[in-house]
Amino acid sequence: MYFNTHKRYKWLHFSEDCLYLNVHAPVRARGDPLQPVMIWFPGGAFLVGSASTYDGSELAAREKVVVVVLQHRLGILGFLRWAGRTGDSQARGNWALLDQIAALRWVQKNIEAFGGDPGCVTLFGQSSGAMCISGLMTSSLARGLFHRAISQSGTAVFQNFITPDPLKVAKKIAQLAGCNHNSTKILVDCLRTLSGAEVMRVSQKMRFFKLHSQEDPQKVVWFMSPVVDGVVFQDNPIVLLTQGQVAPVPYLLGVNNLEFNWLLPFIMKFPMSHLRKETIAKLLWSTSTLLNVTKEQLPLVMEEYLRDVDDHDQKMLQKQVMDLAADATFVYSTLQAAHYHHKTPMVGSCPTGHATTRMRSTCSWI
Question: Does domain 21-359 sit in CATH 3.40.50.1820?
Fold first, then answer.
């Protein structure tokens, strides 16, 4: 699933038949030892991402590692969950994560044929891929399938990683698809008859990652995401993290400067010119469910980030808005994840611009 139309991304191949992965292996002589394996989880807000857009050959050649780039179902096809009021689940959701787990199992079974060591597997990814890695660390289905993890700008603590009301999202999708029916089974069967192109058109109608200035933020669906299904996740990963139910593996996590520098103006069409504090307050309210800021907290947030900024200083207003958005989402969730993992002696945080928690690892295992 992509943010806009086929035309903009016509150089990419679109298909429901997407369960493939790419393996990049260094040149290996007979008798060489098995090499460490690194599995890349692409990001893209659970809506965009493919293995073909990443070339792992240079990393494999330079660092003598076997690089695997996976891909999975996205958007509606990857995350739709429909459970009726009686508890019957016609579409349980988390298909994307099940695809990821299937890829990890494939690696365990087959990677030796490419010179990779199935006993030395590191997961690494960015944005939504990083969130999935963080989430899989709390899933019993993924236990034993990897031995190290790296989350680059994203963790399962992110506000919207778990969809709180998947039925509300599913009903909106069904309405836009013309599949309204009282019977859950008939409704889901109707959705299953849609072609891939029709599902993409429904996805575009959902207006993922678009500003809804006139709509109640509580009704906005920013993107499709995982759910608590009792299969991949027995509970919200945040709850599992607080209970210590997490894979005891070395974990490195971090964030970048200007996390929202491209997302706000280019994807969400957040107007970055002619900003005023009054306008910023309205825009922050419209994105409050994405930024994890309540209506009551907005004045405090405005005071913290904008109190010393002149209303005519456009550069500083833009910078502070970017910092606010980044801190409220990626930075906060990363620091919280590090806090939950702090009892694990192998957790580390390598800052890439932001000052984060102190190192608990030499990072020599990367």
Answer: yes
The answer to whether 36 and 65 have CB atoms below 8 angstroms apart is yes
What region, left, alpha or beta, does residue 32 occupy, with left being phi > 0 and alpha being psi -120 to 50 degrees? beta
On whether the CB atoms of residues 19 and 99 are closer than 8 A, the answer is yes
Strand order in the sheet with 35-41: 21-24, 66-70, 35-41, 116-126, 148-152, 251-254, 347-349
- Cα 285 to Cα 162, 169, 181, 333, distances in angstroms: 21, 21, 34, 20
Helix (H, G, I), strand (E, B) or coil at 238: helix
> What token pair was written down for 98?
């099940």
Strands 66-70 and 81-83: unpaired
Helix, strand or coil for residue 360?
A: coil
User: Could you tell me the CA-to-CA distances from 134 to 107, 154, 221, 316, 338 in Å, in that order?
Assistant: 19, 8, 22, 33, 11
Is beta strand 116-126 parallel, antiparallel or unpaired with respect to 148-152?
parallel
37 confidence band (pLDDT: 50, 70, 90) = very high
pLDDT tens for 282-338 read 878 877 777 878 888 888 988 888 888 888 788 888 888 888 888 888 898 999 999
Measured distance CA(318)–CA(306) in Å, rounded: 10
| Domain boundaries of the chain, sorted by first residue | 21-359
> What are 354-361's contacts with CB under 8 Å, separation 24+?
354/254, 354/255, 354/256, 354/257, 356/254, 356/255, 356/331, 361/250, 361/252
Phi/psi region, residue 161 (left: phi>0; alpha: psi -120 to 50; beta: rest), is alpha
Which residues face 69 on adjacent strands? 22, 40
Distances (CA, A) of 125 to 122, 192, 258: 10, 31, 18
pTM of the model: 0.85
Helical ranges in 137-262 per DSSP H: 166-177, 184-192, 196-205, 237-242
